[in-house]
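Hey, I was hoping to borrow your eyes for a little while. I've dropped the whole record in just underneath, so have a look:

——
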Amino acid sequence: MSFKNVVLVLVLVLVLFACVAVGCAKEEMIYMPALAQVIVVPQEFLGKTLQVKGYYAAVPPAESLLFLTKEHASVADRPSSIFLWQTADGKNFSSIAECRNGHLSVRGRFSELEFGGVGLTDIERAVVTREGEESSRVCFEVPNRE
């Protein structure tokens, strides 16, 4: 075994030991599919953390929905939307006035909901978007709990 290989093995052993001793955090992958893809094949995303963009609107009686477009929201086209249900700190997403009626990028866990339908739960962050890009205005974010 060459000196280079021995050094490489030692470095890998040290990194492994550091992870065991200190505890390496398992970072969860965040998927960023198009909202249309999530609507068409929801089973592919169940249980995963997603970040999706769409037009957010509260639709009577009390539904928080993320639509493909503002036009879909204006006619309450529910099949072109997913629910925005509950934040990671336990609030109903509809109670967050700062996020109402606009283009958002939202990150949360995609789940089947107990009343039927699918949507984001454990929502961690929502950012106002313009022309597909995130702005600097975060309308909701769960504080870091470390």
Summary: The radius of gyration is 20 Å.
